[in-house]
């Protein structure tokens, strides 16, 4: 037997069934491949679920939506020419039970064609459509809050409805977006009975179409024909664009975290393989003496490493498949759909490919080094450093490693972002390597301490065979990841806390008739005399043009220009609103208030490159209004007051039919009494408790934080694996040091203390750099990927850094304990 067959026979005989010496390789590949497999499978499962169920989630093949009006005859005729049409009207309302309990609801009126796709099912098993005109289907959450059951009655507006059933599955729920309360479904005639729709009322009308032709072509024709009417269009392939954007953004982050974890684990693989081959110097020497070539030695151990890598990759793939449904359950509030157990061949093959390439890249140099060392040098002892991998090892490593970033760029939806992330990761690793080399050089030139233990620790940093560079990389990565995790988590927690300002209003009220504002105020102050009530005109509109650009002509929405997606709340005011500060331009004077002017959020202005004096066009109630930009504002969104991206002068929108929105600042204990007093007098007004809305938002953000933390924790575990690998790689040299010291009379405590001092010196040296890298990475993730505000808790970050330093030092010292068990006689025989 010659060549590969002989190499496999020898490799199989030497390979331990318990993978002794190669468990670190197994662990690193399991962590990295498992993370990538889970992340890729989860993202693709959600994407496929959204694509497969697109028409059900949307409620049609095409959807056209507009606020505060119904489609006119030409618009409706154009829709009916495209296919079967279903009309749905949504608005905020209040449900009042016979027992006096109240709750905000998302009132949804459907016609007899609803649903075009999917099934609306009730808890009792019935499949239904629109209810009778005097009946209502309600969500389970509403039934629980009001303590009502089928057969009971509810008042919506001025009409009373019988509860016909509890909704078990609403097919187009995801396409409806965020709602301020559970759903209540009535018929179109039932909505007319409520009297809720009046001139100026806030409601959204949606027309879903079971299309006869291509949805994209239908949408394009309709938008071109009615381009000034303010219609928002969706097709079944983007049924939930917000959910798709979130999944894509989270998928990008998690994939890059998985890649970074795998690259970090690769360093651990390299260290672990070096340690494994170091422990087999006698076997390699024997093979060399018996005539084995350098190529044969490399083949034998390459096959061993490939066999173990295959097991690690396989276990990682299994873990990745199993993690998908578990992740779906754990963060169900964040994910748009709930993926079950699924096998996604593409992401699994990609994760396996990444794992194999990383293993080959980081194993190449120690394998080449093991094959090139002469037998005589091997027999001289472990401290003989001749015959390293050299340029040949580096070349093989680069050949295996270069496809990794190429694959990452080719498979990424945002290659520029991916290149920046990978470049930053490579830069951080290069910086740590350079710092390790600098520490080693500085230790060699530093004056010798007088205390023996300190002198030994300093000498260990630069002596022949020292692993200072790999230890600095390992310790630096560990500390960087601890700081990164702390800054991300505390910033998200800070955003959650900011969502509850010190003086948040207790209630929001929508659709207050302007002519009854004084009566509204009297009703509130009769219950809460000290209440502060703020009102603003409120309507909905769509930005259709800015400067010389028409929004309909844009191929993609500019980054940061979220206000161009769909409708926005609009208002007008003679004075600068509270919570806003002018950053450019000036506010209109009393004489200018009759002109068509607008003030715009400075962030939107920056995203669209707007200038003072540029025109801005919005569509309101199907009619376009153009105003000249008079100023830019910095908005304090965290105040939870009335914050609008666009505030118009009274002359621009005063003649548009509208109602008022109100905030009521008062003790929260009086909220229910105020709501009970308002509803009989203002049946068309919706009153919403701010606390319940904030709780929903905070729940989602907390689950997102949990997902980010879990993903980053994989990288932290990989960093710990790197540290273990670096310790294992240095164990042989440290064993000889410990033996010589013990022969010369040193105690175990003294040997351990010298190593502890060495780790303390290294941790102190890399702590500042790790903090800079961790904080920089955390800022990028928080502000650039997830668009949160940068709000780290520096006290927690500092405590985490101290804890991380303690943990890494403890791992380093604990990893050195086996060195103390080295027997002098056995060790000296091998020197």
UniProtKB/TrEMBL annotation:
Domain MacB-like periplasmic core stretches: 25-199
TM segment ranges: 253-279, 300-331, 351-373, 394-413, 419-443, 469-488, 704-730, 751-782, 794-820
Keywords of the record: Cell membrane, Membrane, Transmembrane, Transmembrane helix
Gene Ontology cellular-component annotations: plasma membrane
Subcellular location: Cell membrane
Domain of life (superkingdom): Bacteria
Residue ranges of domain ABC3 transporter permease C-terminal in the record: 257-368, 711-822
Alphabetical list of Pfam families matching this protein: FtsX, MacB_PCD
Topology term for the membrane: Multi-pass membrane protein
UniProt keyword Transmembrane, yes or no: yes
Protein name from the UniProt record: ABC transporter permease
Species of origin: Sphingomonas ginsenosidimutans
Classification of source organism: Bacteria, Pseudomonadati, Pseudomonadota, Alphaproteobacteria, Sphingomonadales
